[in-house]
Amino acid sequence: MDVLALGVQADERPLLEEAFAGRHTIRCLEVALDRDTAPLAAGYEAVSSSVNADLDAAVLGTLAAGGTRMIAQRSTGFNNIDLAAARRLGLTVARVSYYSPYAVAEFAWTLAMAVNRRIVRAAGRTRDFDFRLDGLLGRDLRGRTAGVLGTGKIGEAFTRIAHGFGMELLGWDLAPNPACQDLGMTYVDKDELFARADVISLHVPLVPSTRRLVDATALKSMKDDAILINSSRGGLIDTDALVDELRAGRFTGVGLDVYEAEAGLFFLDKSLEAVTDDTLARLMTFPHVVVTSHQAYYTREAVTQIIDTTVRNITDYAEGRRNENVLVPPEPPGE
């Protein structure tokens, strides 16, 4: 089967080509899948999209008109795909249900430690041979409280690291995770978690009920010296409200690997262009805020698992099998 993969990173390309070799013919493009690039997929029965793709009804319609019948997204999240439109068009949609939770959990703690210990500021100074310690005072994590919103596989991995630091553990989720409870986690409502936690990390999916879960009210209820980490989805935080709190001098630090309006920005080189996103530009001005470009998942282990699962999803489709990763099964158009 001929497969077109879009949104492919330079490090990812050789891994994709090696995994597909001898099974399917794959063409890799760096550009993300959106309304402008969807016509490139004409003639490809299977298309593999990245997490930053925009698969709205218009894009899906273009893909279907060009002969695409299967979409294999290389991510766990699928809030960027109009599944109802895919169903109407008879498109099969699959995702990657699972990959290394340690990649994201470890990166979330990397962000937390970076803002707590002022690593970015310190590294910038020492490159200029400025070895002062002014403004670099951090805090011990031992004995402090970690609040984990979402205690699935990634949240559990984050909790295990917090337990290793010797932290008190608070969790919020639809149902408790027994493994987290065994580590000493106490489940509380989210209002109590926001009010009590010193480090708050988000590990829930972006669905209507979690959109802007961290809104103005939640932000105001947090401790003035709290650390907020988001390595899940940008839409979980009301970014404008966050900027307001930062301008008021609140929070020890904020680490964001995702951003509400990251589509069309993240994974791209915008260094020679004028910044048109005022909210992102303001975020970048705060010395205790670290923004990275949706890279928490980006380890060799995790990317390899994502690619292997994508190959399996496409192979199963080609051979008439349906696996656990299918979001929209094959159906004739109009049914």
From TrEMBL:
What range(s) does the D-isomer specific 2-hydroxyacid dehydrogenase NAD-binding domain occupy? Answer: 110-296
Superkingdom field: Bacteria
What family classification does the UniProt entry report for this protein? Belongs to the D-isomer specific 2-hydroxyacid dehydrogenase family.
* UniProt KW Oxidoreductase keyword: yes
This protein is called what?
A: 2-hydroxyacid dehydrogenase
What UniProt keywords apply to this chain's record, in alphabetical order? NAD, Oxidoreductase
Residue ranges constituting the D-isomer specific 2-hydroxyacid dehydrogenase catalytic domain according to the UniProt record: 8-327
